[in-house]
Amino acid sequence: MGKTEGRGKEWHGHVTAVAVAPEYRRLNLAKRMMQTLETVSQNQYNAYFIDLFVRSTNYLAIDMYKSFGYVVYRRVKGYYTNSSGPDEDGFDMRIPLGRDKDKESIEGHGEDNVILPEDFPTFR
Fold this sequence. Notes:
Layout: E1 2-5, E2 12-15, H1 29-43, E3 49-55, H2 59-67, E4 71-80, E5 88-96, E6 114-115
C-alpha cells in the first residue's frame, strides 16, 4: 500500500498502489485504506504529507483522490513510459498532514506546476 520516504520537510508517506477488486468497489474500502495510511504516517512516522502518482488521464482515480482531500501538486512530464506510444504525464497528488500546519507541502500546487522527470527528486 505505502511507505515513508524523504528528508526534512520532504519526510512523507507515499501511496505505492491502491487496488480494490471489482466486486468490493463502492464499499469505501479505498477510502479506509487511505485513511489508515494517513493515520499511520502522521501518528507513527510524524510525516508532513502523503503523496501519490496517477496518470493525468485517469480521471476516475483523480476524482476519487480529490474527494479524499488530495490536490494535484504538480505534473511530471513523461512520468509513465509507454512502449506502444508516447509517454504519459503523471500527477503528483498530495494531502498535508497535521505536522504541516502552514500547508507548505502543497504551496504553489496545480496542474500547471510542471517538472521534467530528470528534475524529479529521488528519496534515499
